[in-house]
Write a structure and sequence with these properties.
The protein is an alpha/beta fold. The chain has eleven helices and eleven strands. The protein has two domains: about 90 residues, Winged helix-like DNA-binding domain superfamily/Winged helix DNA-binding domain (Arc Repressor Mutant, subunit A), CATH 1.10.10; about 210 residues, D-Maltodextrin-Binding Protein, domain 2, CATH 3.40.190. It is rod-shaped, with a radius of gyration of 31 Å.
């Protein structure tokens, strides 16, 4: 039995003295309102109305139940109102500062269509982790190893000029083998990739192939790293989507397969699951992640 619906019908019929008019006010057919009130009477063991051709009159029992019914329906209405307000309460989400304004706007718009109102805060990986820990945000797109990732983004090397080979080997930057041996070309690691599972693996490849320590460097900002690449033969460690946005030519790394991994970190587990399930595709597009089902970059599809 729909107890709340039955009490709503009871109140509307009692106010109008008619099952037909009370049902219309409840926005249900007259037969539904009659069934609900009859079920309520059976449940309570007493009649609420005296029914006649002239209409419906409250019994004494019905008049006694009227104040409680009004309180119940008023409380239910207040709860529905609070629920709607809670849905509008923004969910603060820390996102990578590599996401473009356009992609973040699309993420925000899709979140609204799914009943989630976002308050987006851009930050580097360590900053996003700290924002969740300090409860300054409710959730963050955290950088995680590929084995723990919900979203995966392939990384490679990109330069200002078109690269002739299909794959770039870090070894080719070694002095004596590089095309411009008078200047040691460098690989720039942007702040988003300044995490152990990416940075340390690049450093190990650097040392294994005999590059100088300064030839693989972490940049303070993506802007600074891109400026270095645009003005030289240096290379930027980045995703294909970033390379396209920056006007660079991207190739995979020959010696190693590098992947950015992302998952949702949240103070409340329910927030993490809501974001993963409702916003998976929009976040994948924002990050430049590959669609795990189709194997194609989600950002390349309309």
């Amino acid at each position: 039995m729909d107890v709340l619906g039955a009490w709503r019908a009871f109140l509307n019929v009692s106010e109008r003295g008619s099952f037909t008019e009370g049902a219309a006010a409840t926005r249900v057919p007259q037969s539904v309102a009659s069934r609900r009130i009859a079920a309520l009477e059976r449940h309570l063991g007493e009649r609420l109305f005296d029914r006649s051709s002239r209409g419906a009159m409250l019994t004494q029992f019905g008049r006694d139940m009227l104040p409680s019914a009004k309180r119940l329906v008023r409380l239910a209405d207040d709860m529905e109102h609070e629920a709607e307000r809670a849905k509008l309460n923004p969910l603060r989400l820390a996102v990578p500062d590599i996401c473009t304004v356009h992609d973040l706007a699309r993420l925000d718009a899709e979140a609204r269509r799914n009943g989630i109102y976002l308050d987006l805060h851009a930050a580097a990986p360590a900053g996003r982790t700290e924002l969740v820990r300090s409860r300054e945000v409710r959730a963050a797109l955290a950088a995680v190893p590929p084995t723990d990732a919900v979203w995966s983004v392939e990384l490679g090397l990109a330069g200002a000029t078109d690269l002739p080979a299909e794959t770039v080997f870090v070894e080719f930057l070694r002095v004596g083998r590089a095309a411009q041996s008078s200047r040691r070309s460098r690989i720039w690691i942007q702040p988003e990739d300044d995490v152990p599972h990416i940075r340390d693996r690049m450093f190990r490849i650097r040392d294994a192939v005999g590059l100088q320590p300064a030839q693989v460097t972490v940049s303070a900002t993506l802007t600074a790293a891109t400026a270095e690449v645009l003005g030289s033969a240096d290379l930027l460690l980045c995703s294909p989507k970033q390379a396209e946005e920056l006007g660079l030519h991207w190739r995979p790394v020959g010696e190693i397969h590098l992947v950015r991994g992302f998952d949702v970190s949240a103070a409340v587990g329910d927030d993490a699951e809501r974001i993963r399930t409702r916003l998976w595709q929009a976040i994948a597009r924002c990050l430049g992640a590959r669609d795990q089902e189709e194997g194609t970059p989600s950002w390349s599809r309309a």
